Amino acid sequence: MRSLVLIGHGSHHHGDSASAVQQAAERLRGPVGTAPGRVQNCFDEVLEGYWQQEPGLRQVLRTVASSNVTVIPLFLAESYLTETVLPRELGLGHQGPVPPGGVARVLGGRRVRYTRPLGVHPGMADVIAARATEALPTGTDPGGVTLLLLTARPGTGTPEAHARALSERGLFADVKVVTLTEPGATEAGLSEWRAHLAAQVGTEAAVLVPFFAHAGGGWQAQLAQALAGPGLPRLHVSGPVGTHPGVADVLLQLAGEGGQEERGDVDQPHAEAWAALRELAERGGRLGEVLLTPHGGLFELRHMLDEGRAAADLRTFVSPEGLRDFTDRDEAGRHRPVRTWRTLPRGWRAVLGPADLRLGLHLLYPAVVEESYAHAHHNLHCTPWASTARRQTGALAKVQRATPDQVDTVAAQVCAPCLRTRLWAGEVLGQTFFSGVPGGLPCAEACSVLLAAVRDEVGAGTA
Ligand code: SF4
């Protein structure tokens, strides 16, 4: 058995930030890799993890079912995040550039291999070319078109390498790397940027391909503002490279860079936790705000406050991803970076087969089954605040200066809507949902939302 974990940035505020990882994971859970000529998909499960939303980096490795795990950062360039933050938060004990075969560690009985980020793989040149040709009107000869590869971060060398590779292929008349305007540029600055762009194009038409992971983050509005002016050649604009379907193939190529891997075993503690959950689901029970009911060989999940409502009155989902997308927002449409906040919307039901139940619950309440089961069996490892704070670097290093009172004050606000009990702060959880207390969910370590809030509190105090 082998598991693949795709890691994205995520966001405390915008659900869009997860879209590239979500789309790639969904494709890889489907039949991609079974068609002739495609890279074979050798993974039995594909999970998602994020730096700034749940499933979080500290949780996600607990949720894999096998002892052989490949972790791919779905980022477009090597950076402080991919070389320092992600390996550290995953507990890999690695810092610095990642070699082509990745770095491998044994963590909690699992062999975990962490690869280079998606964007540096040479296969991304194919994705860029596909984005460009798909954006051109049907019948356009790309040999008469300039491809402009748009980046927000010049100088990483990654878009430049893809531009060189595409130039050598000769499919387009010319390939250039261009940089997005500064946010909030003045009209004079925008005009200068347009003149620079126009100077790059020696053909009648050009296609602009954003070397971005996803459509969120505000760059589209910034680009639209920059392009809304005179002096540009005939310009076609594609979608971002990170959400192109071809990314799934590149991910499988990247996963294969470590050479032939032996298949792993089923992770026993994980299997035991899910066997216990399955028993609970078969007799019916509550987990957090969710009511879990057996339903003719399937399982129905719904908000517990919707108990007794007719199915016809509720929106029905039959896939884990459909359930995830709907419950990603609260009833006011706000993103839910912490899934155990008591903001689960009502008005839905999910009907899932036994094979989909685990993924559905993983996306609804990440790591809750594994951590609650471990807590009930006295082997959940908790990380006290001081340890979490000590390992933070960059802008988050400020949290090391937070006083216990500041941490308590911020946690009282951030954690107030959360179902979890803060074991990392010394709170006691006697019973879990496994023993009939639906809200009995452990929190083993401060989450990224709390860390960011403490950082802001410390920053406000020193301003
Ligand atoms: Fe919930 Fe607080 Fe734990 Fe974050 S730190 S998961 S908000 S209890």
Level of helix content?
A: 25-40%
Q: Biggest sheet, open or closed, and with what strands and sense? A: 5 strands, mixed
The residue-averaged pLDDT reads 91
Number of domains: 4
Question: Pairing-aware structural class of the strands and helices?
Answer: alpha/beta
User: Tally of extended strands?
Assistant: 16
The CATH topology of the largest domain is Rossmann fold
- In one word, what is the shape? globular
The distinct ligands, each listed once, are: iron/sulfur cluster
What is the radius of gyration computed over CA atoms, rounded to a whole number of angstroms?
24 Å
- Strand order across the biggest sheet? 2-1-3-5-4
Q: How far apart are the first and last residues' alpha carbons, in Å?
A: 52 Å
InterPro entries: CbiX-like, CbiX-rel, DR2241_Fer4, DR2241_middle, Sirohydro_Cobaltochel/CbiX
Domain DR2241 stabilising: 270-375
Keywords: Lyase, Metal-binding
Domain DR2241 4Fe-4S iron-sulfur cluster binding: 378-455
Describe the structure.
The chain has 463 residues and is of the alpha/beta class. It folds into 4 domains: 140 residues, Rossmann fold (3-Layer(aba) Sandwich), CATH 3.40.50.1400; 120 residues, Rossmann fold; 98 residues, Gyrase A, domain 2, CATH 3.30.1360; 91 residues, Alpha-Beta Plaits, CATH 3.30.70. The protein has 15 helices and 16 strands. The strands form 4 sheets. A 5-stranded mixed sheet has the order 2-1-3-5-4. Strands 10-11-12-14-13 form a 5-stranded mixed sheet. Helix 7 links the parallel strand 8 and strand 9. Helix 10 packs parallel to helix 11 and helix 14 packs across helix 15. The longest helix has 16 residues. The radius of gyration is 24 Å and the shape is globular. It starts with a strand and ends with a helix. The model has no long low-confidence stretch (mean pLDDT 91). The structure holds iron/sulfur cluster. Iron/sulfur cluster binds next to strand 15 and helix 15.
